[in-house]
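Write out this protein's structure.
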Amino acid sequence: MNKVFSLLFCLVMALVLTGAVFAGGSQEKAESADGASNLEASLALEDEVLALKAADGQPLIVLQKEQREVPPRPADPEALPETDPLHWWDIEFAGWNANKKNIPESPKDGAIGKKIIFIVHGDHPWTTACTLGAQKVADVYGMEFKPMSPNWDLAVQNQMIDQAINERPDMILLIPLDAKTAPQQARKINQAGIPLILFNTLPSAEAMDYAIAWTGPDDFGQFRMLAKVWADKIGKKGGVAYTQHAPGGSPYFARYWGPRSELTGYAPGIETLDAQAPGFEADKTMQLVSDWLTRFGDDLVGICSADDSAQGLGITEALNKAGREDVVVVAAGNSKVGMDLVKEGKIFAITYQTAEGDGALAVKTAADWFNGKEIEPVRYLPKHIITKDDVDDFYPPQW
């Protein structure tokens, strides 16, 4: 009897184990089917995402129609004069020659339900609009979307990166606060095995090695366009000055050396009289411009500003007080303040800087990666110069 019982027991256990194996196989197939169906469902949302609009009525997701022409990198860009456009190659074209390291493979299982952490640089009306645009895209894909802001504090941003890594999201999206420390931040995220997309401000080229891609405005390209429009308006001669962005970040270089190096070839008759970074307070900018008007008098025929809001207000207030209507002002845009000044004829031209589109493009690129699409190393927002002729097309303003 014991032998019979043992034989029956072994037979029953064999059947149980066989059932478990088949059940396991069925579970794997079910999980595989779920991944496939999630990918299908995610890809089906493409048209809905592309139909989204920003607050100004413009399409939320728009890429440059023509790919940016990238010249060959000089052997030593920094050996060239700062007024040579190629001196800035490593900043302007960061990412185009990246040596990618340890980049995770796309799971190709769809964007729906993925968790992304969205770390910006600081609190500002622009950042609020940027986050709103990102949220719009995340909502369509049903993503778990967590925005974080260090309020312009690098130490806090580093802490937030550590916190984000500990939360093990499916991806981190990051606006680096400082170009020089960006490689350390990107390397840390990369070594944790978390996919990374950098966006908005350009980091140093090394940081691009650890990121899937960079998305954002072609700031250098836009300001090269703006410089030509500005030069044409002032007759390609005379003295100009620049109110600069905060030193250190890519806008500081793009919005000063971009136009200045462009004018070296396009309008050599234009002379740079001064360039200073007064911060983003109207009063300080007004005082700086008032000093320029006293120092340079009628020799000053143009001002290029890194900001069309606070700096734009300070510039126009100083010109109004001095009764100077001949100075041609251009600026980065496009806030409500800046667009109103364009309508009033106080600022001649501004760049189109879609804040919502900036955040939206970063999240859409993340979704494309989850969906297994090919991702270019750099994705630019469209370039456009706004003047009085078309400023009404961009109301209501995004911020």
